[in-house]
Amino acid sequence: MSGNRLRFGIVGCGQIAQDSHIPPILKNKNVSLVAVCDKDEGLAKKVAAKFKIPGSYVNLGEMLKSEKLDVVSICVPPWIHASA
Question: Is the pTM value of this prediction over 0.70?
Fold first, then answer.
């Protein structure tokens, strides 16, 4: 954890992330939303700019390596999730 704030990342920049995940995360004073990741580079950059999130990525591994996150919210459709 960086200082007293959790470093947070979002995977998937669609409507669920934009409407249901990002706004409450940004309101939490104990969290810093530092990066988003989406396979659509344009969407990742658009969402990062819209919400003033410093990092945008198209590669999850690169985001995890670069950002040293404490929490990652997976906001992709269920059929994209990895198999158990």
Answer: yes
